[in-house]
Every structure is written in C-alpha cells, then in structure tokens.
C-alpha cells in the first residue's frame, strides 16, 4: 500500500508577515521538520504542495513538488490536498502535515500510521483536548470524491469533510507538543 507524505506549504502566512515555513528551528526550516518526520517513516513519495510564488525558496531535492495553478493559489488546505491527490494517482493514503509545526516528530507519524490498518475508514484525524487536528492527519483516496464535491460547492474548510466520510479520531494527551502550530511571531517567541 502506497502512503504519500504531503507537506502543505503554500499558505499566505499573512498573520506571520513573511513565509513562515522558512523560519529556522534547530538548524532546519520549519517545513523540513514536517518532511523529515514523514521521511523517517519511509513514506514515499514525499510531496511539497506549494505555489509558483514560493517555489524558488525550497531547496530540498529528495521530494516531489506539486504546484497549484497560478489562478488557484491560496485556496487553502482542502483544495491543495485535492490537487495533490489528483497529481499522485498511485497513492492510497496521504499523510498531510502543515509546514508550520516545528515540534512534529517521527514518533507521532509512526503512531498515526498504525491506524491505517483499521477497516472502512477514509481519514485518521487526531484529537487533542477536544480539538480536531486536520493538518496532522491521514486521508484515503476514497475521500477524493467528497472533497471535489465540497470544492465545487465553493467550500474551502477541510473540517466540512468530516461529516461526510468515516473518520477515526485517535486522542492524544493534552501535554503532547507536536500539535503546536506557529501562526504569528508572538507564537514563535512564546514556544521556541
Ligand atoms: N499548498 C497550500 N498550502 C496551504 C494553503 N493554505 C494554507 N496552506 C498551508 O496549510 C498550513 C496551515 O495554514 P494556515 O496557517 O492556516 O494559513 P496560512 O495561509 O499559511 O497563514 P495565514 O495567512 O496567517 O492564515 C500551512 O502549512 C500553510 O502553508 C494553500 O492554499 N495551498
């Protein structure tokens, strides 16, 4: 079974003020922490989903790049994931991570991967302290049709998908740091 590793790295970073995926933590860009957590678990292909504006800033050569069409940039994670699924027809599962989550670990990815063996599910979306974490999650290709329908209706929120597909929601403890995401410079000052 092919499980692709996908790093979503084509957002506006408007709250951060500059492309936040290129901030550095422990000698690596933020986006590389996501990429390497997926890579350490042998996921292949590894995909960075981004756009033409940001493309020249990425340096990694051990990945495939999927670019959103110029007229479809900044449509959000639901659109970006759908686009990746269409570009990568051989993968069954897609492990999606944000590119602003520097504390994500290979161990977390490994724990999540174990849930793909459950029957009849289309997504594995972790929950922490009652909050779903859709950008630390696994999506099966079987969810693609529902995703396309939502997009055709003008919907951009990935959360809208969860009423329409079978989702497994493993719970993670409150103190687990992997889910910290950096939206503002204040967030980064607080957490680094
Ligand atoms: N490829 C791609 N990734 C996206 C898109 N929108 C958001 N992302 C990524 O999804 C993750 C979460 O994005 P957010 O922080 O909610 O949004 P953002 O646009 O990056 O930042 P804000 O403008 O501050 O909301 C980040 O890793 C983004 O890079 C998109 O349209 N395409």
From TrEMBL:
Name of protein: Probable molybdenum cofactor guanylyltransferase
Family (UniProt): Belongs to the MobA family.
Annotated positions binding Mg(2+): 100
Cofactor section: Mg(2+)
Catalytic activity: Mo-molybdopterin + GTP + H(+) = Mo-molybdopterin guanine dinucleotide + diphosphate
UniProtKB keywords: Cytoplasm, GTP-binding, Magnesium, Metal-binding, Molybdenum cofactor biosynthesis, Nucleotide-binding, Nucleotidyltransferase, Transferase
Cellular compartments annotated: Cytoplasm
InterPro entries found in the cross-reference section: MobA-like_NTP_Trfase, Molybde_CF_guanTrfase, Nucleotide-diphossugar_trans
Domain of life: Bacteria
Ligand binding (GTP): 8-10, 20, 100
Role according to the record: Transfers a GMP moiety from GTP to Mo-molybdopterin (Mo-MPT) cofactor (Moco or molybdenum cofactor) to form Mo-molybdopterin guanine dinucleotide (Mo-MGD) cofactor.
Encoding gene per record: mobA
GO CC field: cytoplasm
SUPFAM superfamilies referenced in this protein's UniProt entry, alphabetically: Nucleotide-diphospho-sugar transferases (SSF53448)
């Amino acid at each position: 079974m092919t499980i692709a590793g996908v790093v979503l790295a084509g957002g506006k970073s408007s709250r951060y003020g500059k492309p936040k995926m290129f901030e550095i933590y422990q000698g690596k860009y933020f986006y590389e922490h996501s990429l390497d957590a997926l890579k350490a678990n042998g996921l292949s292909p590894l995909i960075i989903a981004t756009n033409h504006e940001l493309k020249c800033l990425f340096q990694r050569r051990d990945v495939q790049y999927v670019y959103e069409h110029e007229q479809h940039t900044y449509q959000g994670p639901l659109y970006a994931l759908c686009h990746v699924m269409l570009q990568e027809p051989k993968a069954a599962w897609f492990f999606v991570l944000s590119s602003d989550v520097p504390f994500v670990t290979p161990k977390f990815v490994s724990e999540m991967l174990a849930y793909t063996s459950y029957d009849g599910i289309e997504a594995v979306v972790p929950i922490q302290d009652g909050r779903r974490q859709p950008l630390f999650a696994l999506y099966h290709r079987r969810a693609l049709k529902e995703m396309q329908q939502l997009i055709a209706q003008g919907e951009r929120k990935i959360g809208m998908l969860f009423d329409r597909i079978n989702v497994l929601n493993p719970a993670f403890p409150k103190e687990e740091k992997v889910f910290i995401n950096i939206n503002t410079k204040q967030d980064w000052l607080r957490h680094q």
